[in-house]
Amino acid sequence: MKTTIKYTKQLINMTMLVKQYEMDRKECKVFRRTATCIKKDLKLDTEIIFVNSKDKKNFTSPNINGIYNDLTKRIIIFIDNKRSIDDIVYTIIHELTHAYQDKYMHDKYKKSLKELRSKKVSYKNSWHEKHANETAKRLSCNYNYIAA
């Protein structure tokens, strides 16, 4: 229980802090347009915050490209000019898939998170991650043209 409370506090603090680092709308206009199309198709109203990757150290580890916060229903996408458009679109779809799982497959999503947090499965082998990766692989080619 203490671990869950600690984790919850960290997620809420991180999400509140991230608004300070949100990128200018012009800097990520293309990605906002792409995200809007995907959100419409998936029937989601999740807020997406685009943050420059140089500020990533304030929130998470260097290998993380996006975060879905299931408590605040917000997504954070880290952007820099070293990542390709395809990679960023993949990340948007991946994180929106988590929002979709949370909204439409809630019990299965929560069970997968619980298994991950209790270390019954690895991050890579958790259902919600495998499903999000597979969805992003399949859908990214459909949305890359919007961002190109």
Walk me through this protein's architecture.
- It is a single chain.
- The protein contains 5 helices and 3 strands.
- It starts with a helix and ends with a helix.
- A 3-stranded mixed sheet has the order 1-3-2, with helices on both faces.
- α2 (29-42) crosses α5 (127-147).
- The model has no long low-confidence stretch (mean pLDDT 84).
- It has 148 residues and is mainly alpha-helical.
- The longest helix is centred in the C-terminal third of the chain and has 21 residues, at 127-147.
- The chain is globular, with a radius of gyration of 15 Å.
Nutshell version of this structure?
With 148 residues, the protein is mostly helical.
Pick out its properties.
single chain; 148 residues; mainly alpha; three-stranded mixed beta sheet; 57% helix; 11% strand
Helix/strand class: mainly alpha
Helix content: 55-70%
Number-wise, the strands total 3
Shape: globular
H/E element sequence: HHEEEHHH
Strand content: 5-15%
Q: Tell me, rounded to a whole number, the average pLDDT.
A: 84
- Tally the helices: what do you get? 5
Rg over CA atoms: 15 Å
Strand order of the main beta sheet, please? Answer: 1-3-2
Write the layout of secondary structure elements.
Layout: H1 2-18, H2 29-42, E1 47-52, E2 66-69, E3 74-79, H3 85-104, H4 106-117, H5 127-147
Parallel strand pairs: 1-3
Antiparallel strand pairs: 2-3
Helix pairs in contact: 2-3, 2-5, 3-4, 3-5
